[in-house]
Structure formats: structure tokens, C-alpha cells
Design goal:
This protein has about 120 residues and is an all-beta fold. The protein has no helices and eleven strands. Helix content is about 0%, strand content about 55%.
Length: about 120
């Protein structure tokens, strides 16, 4: 029943932009903190951005000033706007949902982002 479906990944040149979307279903969206993680081959999965239930956000130092996370509760969707992309941003990006009280975690299947000339 629970689904997190990422979309919006692709190939982009350095300095370009992409907007990732994560469509959620099967759980109470408003009761979950949402986040984006990424993982490059040979590297650990890292937190990129998080938005909590109350709307506060936090970002990895490597993306501050370039990425923006937001959520649309009416659409049960979380977004990641990525600007001024760099080759080191290349990774599979995963959507994550964390239950505020239950601590349950759900993950999407990931979407590939490749930044290359």
C-alpha cells in the first residue's frame, strides 16, 4: 500500500537545474517528516535535505544555497529543486518518509541524476 515514487531525474550539464518529485501514497503524509537522500557508487547514502512536519528544513553543507526542499500536502508530494548542479551531485536520489511518532521509515526506488558535460 505504501508508495514513494520519485521522478524528475535525468542528465544535465554542470550549472543546470532539475526538479525532483516524490509522490506519496498509502500513509498519512502530514504525519511524516520527508527527506531526500542520495548515493553514488562506492559511497554511503547521505542525507541531502529534510523538511519536518512543521515546515523547517535542513540541508547538507554541500548543497546549501543550491537545493531547496518543499512539500505540498494537498498533493502528498515532496520536491527537491536543484540549481547550479555540479558533477559531484551525480547519484541516485531517494525519497524518504519518517513517521513523527511511529518512527516508521519508507523509501522510494530512487531516480538517477547525472551531471556531466
Amino acid at each position: 500500500q505504501v508508495q514513494l515514487v520519485e521522478s524528475g531525474g535525468g542528465l544535465v550539464q554542470p550549472g543546470g537545474s532539475l526538479r525532483l518529485s516524490c509522490a506519496a501514497s498509502g500513509f498519512i503524509f502530514s504525519s511524516y517528516n520527508m527527506g531526500w537522500f542520495r548515493q553514488a557508487p562506492g559511497k554511503q547514502r547521505e542525507l541531502v535535505a529534510r523538511i519536518i512536519k512543521g515546515g523547517s528544513t535542513n540541508y547538507a553543507d554541500s548543497v546549501k544555497g543550491r537545493f531547496t526542499i518543499s512539500r505540498d500536502s494537498a498533493k502528498n508530494t515532496v520536491y527537491l529543486q536543484m540549481n547550479n548542479l555540479k558533477p559531484e551531485d551525480t547519484a541516485v536520489y531517494y525519497c524518504n518518509a519518517e513517521g513523527v511518532l511511529s518512527k516508521r521509515n519508507y523509501w522510494g526506488q530512487g531516480t538517477q541524476v547525472t551531471v556531466s558535460s
